[in-house]
Design goal:
alpha+beta; 4-stranded antiparallel sheet; Alpha-Beta Plaits; Iron-only hydrogenase system regulator; 4 strands
């Protein structure tokens, strides 16, 4: 059974938290297969959304999520998708 892991990271006040989030993502770069960053173009919004597809390494995914959750203004959600072959 093939497994795929997806993580959504919501960053509030993007200009303050983004550098720390980037530093953490760089540390865990070896488990990141795909990264998509979406930010609001409306000047009144300061939120960013990052979607990640991650390699199937439960311990590293858990560590990544824990570190991101420690950053002020960052929310993290993960999901595991299992595919039958």
């Amino acid at each position: 059974m093939k497994t795929s892991n997806v993580m959504a990271i919501l960053i509030d006040k993007r200009t303050n938290s983004a550098p720390k989030v980037q530093e953490i993502l760089t540390t865990y770069g070896s488990i990141i297969e795909t990264r998509l960053g979406i930010h609001e173009t409306d000047d009144s919004q300061e939120e960013g959304l990052i979607l990640l597809v991650l390699r199937d390494d439960k311990e590293e995914i858990s560590n990544l999520a824990d570190e991101l959750k420690e950053v002020t203004g960052v929310k993290v959600n993960t999901m595991e998708l299992k595919f039958h072959e």
